[in-house]
């Protein structure tokens, strides 16, 4: 009985439920994709009802594949796409608008308006984040300003907000019938509203955004019992005991618990997190200061983060928009057909440039094209774009921390791509290490939940579960590494200053 922990991984493109055993190995998985909604250029939405329906479906799928029932599950952990904002009616459980996704850029006018008094770093000392379309705060304001009747309902206390972790938790624990409205410190740190020191919502910033405090979920630790699954659900009475935003969850799953440890997750976007321990480090090089994790009543652990908007989604773009490939893994075969990128560089600034530039005026660019270039060169340039962006973020981490990273732990869907991992090691000049369990995001959420209920006793037990699967050593000569970086940086400059008043 109670031999397993289940993690709900509510991601950008799909929702998954993964069952883990005590050694941190995967027992079974259920997964369903949800629709990506693009109403206008730069707008990205999801249907929250579809997401919740899929979450219930994948839980059932994961349990049935392993012939398990709720009695076999010790706890539920949740991890999620951060910054994706849902606003719903607490009385009916109905969202008043689609979820506005972290990639969405429609709120740039709100950013500009708020930045007119104090610049984009107006709140950064307190919340660790620059004003940007990326974070939840401007999305909530947009919904209140643009959905008819929303502001009145919010002022009356009828509307509540959450990133998708809070949406899943609320529904899982009962929804309108006593659902728990809460989030953890890692998700709260992505709203622009949480004070890094106090771990509480900041009333002054909420007022500046025009967001009623009554909408906000309670801020709890990343590992504690928030409530039990409602009696109407398949996992009824199982404790929900862990929440971590997806990138923090991946860091936790990689057992990067100590200051100076880091990981890079290769998914829809790419996210490098560097553990700074109990110290809040304010970046001078374009990184975000964020919460790493907080276990129960223990002190919080902080982190520096380099966020890259487009990596895996660039490969999806080659597949879905250009029709260059029919499945994502084909990109590796196509890239292997050429010996180098042929002078072609792709800067995938589809949502502007995130770390370390934070340029909302940037847009995607393919540069260096000649008649020699073919689809193999474009495929290779698409893969290399991920590695180049990671190098720039790692340079910023090294500058901020003053302690150069000696190896990089990696995870996420793209780490199965051998060519990318080798080029990543080449362009970084340090080894790249893949763990045996690459589903570290779900594993991290499972670990947080399991710790809260005593399924695992401490961090040492989790560290003992981590095992190396493969290591890539750098092979590129330094001169060639420097030449490629110089050309990449030149390509990045070509993507900037594109959006002006006439370009949407």
From TrEMBL:
Its EC number is 2.7.1.30. Residues 4-253 form the Carbohydrate kinase FGGY N-terminal domain. GO terms for molecular function: ATP binding; glycerol kinase activity. GO terms for biological process: glycerol catabolic process; glycerol-3-phosphate metabolic process. PROSITE patterns: FGGY_KINASES_1 (PS00933), FGGY_KINASES_2 (PS00445). The keyword Transferase applies. Inhibited by fructose 1,6-bisphosphate (FBP). It catalyses: glycerol + ATP = sn-glycerol 3-phosphate + ADP + H(+). Coiled coil: none annotated. Key enzyme in the regulation of glycerol uptake and metabolism. Catalyzes the phosphorylation of glycerol to yield sn-glycerol 3-phosphate. This is Glycerol kinase. It comes from Arthrobacter cupressi.
């Amino acid at each position: 009985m109670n031999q397993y922990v289940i993690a709900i991984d509510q991601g950008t493109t799909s929702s998954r439920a993964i069952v883990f055993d005590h050694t941190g190995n995967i027992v079974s998985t259920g997964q369903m994709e949800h629709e990506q909604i693009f109403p206008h250029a730069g707008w990205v939405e999801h249907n929250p009802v579809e997401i919740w329906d899929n979450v219930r479906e994948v839980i059932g799928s994961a349990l049935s594949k392993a012939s398990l029932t709720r009695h076999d599950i010790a706890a539920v952990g949740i991890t999620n796409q951060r910054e994706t904002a849902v606003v719903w009616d607490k009385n009916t459980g109905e969202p008043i608008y689609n979820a506005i996704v972290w990639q969405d850029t429609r709120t740039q006018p709100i950013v500009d308006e708020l930045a007119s008094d104090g610049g984009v770093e107006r709140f950064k000392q307190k919340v660790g984040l620059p004003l940007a379309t990326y974070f939840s705060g401007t999305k909530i304001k947009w919904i209140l300003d643009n959905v008819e009747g929303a502001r009145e309902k919010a002022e009356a206390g009828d509307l509540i907000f959450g990133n998708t972790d809070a949406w899943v938790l609320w529904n899982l624990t009962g929804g309108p019938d006593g659902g728990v409205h809460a989030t953890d410190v890692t998700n709260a740190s992505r709203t622009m509203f949480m004070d890094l020191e106090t771990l509480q919502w900041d009333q002054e910033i909420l007022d500046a955004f025009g967001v009623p405090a009554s909408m906000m979920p309670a801020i709890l630790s990343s590992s504690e019992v928030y409530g039990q699954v409602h009696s109407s659900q398949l996992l009824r009475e199982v404790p929900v005991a862990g929440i971590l935003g997806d990138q923090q969850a991946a860091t936790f799953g990689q057992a990067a618990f100590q200051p100076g440890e880091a990981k890079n997750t290769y998914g829809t976007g790419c996210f490098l997190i560097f553990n700074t321990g109990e110290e809040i480090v304010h970046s001078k090089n374009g990184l975000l200061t964020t919460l790493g994790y907080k276990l129960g009543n223990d002190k919080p652990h902080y982190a520096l983060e380099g966020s890259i908007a487009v990596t895996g989604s660039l490969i999806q773009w080659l597949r879905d928009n250009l029709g260059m490939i029919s499945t994502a893994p084909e990109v590796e075969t196509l890239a292997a057909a050429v010996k180098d990128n042929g002078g072609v560089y792709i800067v995938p600034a589809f949502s502007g440039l995130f770390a370390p530039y934070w340029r909302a005026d940037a847009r995607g660019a393919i540069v260096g094209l000649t008649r020699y270039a073919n689809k193999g060169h474009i495929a290779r340039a698409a893969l290399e774009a991920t590695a180049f962006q990671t190098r720039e973020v790692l340079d910023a981490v090294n500058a901020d921390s003053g302690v150069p990273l000696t190896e990089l732990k990696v995870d996420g869907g793209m780490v199965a791509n051998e060519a990318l991992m080798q080029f990543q090691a080449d362009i970084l000049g340090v080894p790249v290490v893949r763990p045996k369990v690459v589903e570290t995001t779900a594993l991290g959420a499972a670990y947080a939940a399991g710790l809260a209920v005593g399924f695992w006793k401490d961090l040492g037990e989790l560290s003992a579960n981590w095992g190396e699967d493969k290591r890539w050593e750098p092979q590129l000569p330094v001169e060639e590494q420097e030449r490629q970086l110089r050309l990449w940086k030149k390509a990045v400059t070509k993507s900037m200053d594109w959006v002006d008043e006439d370009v949407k």
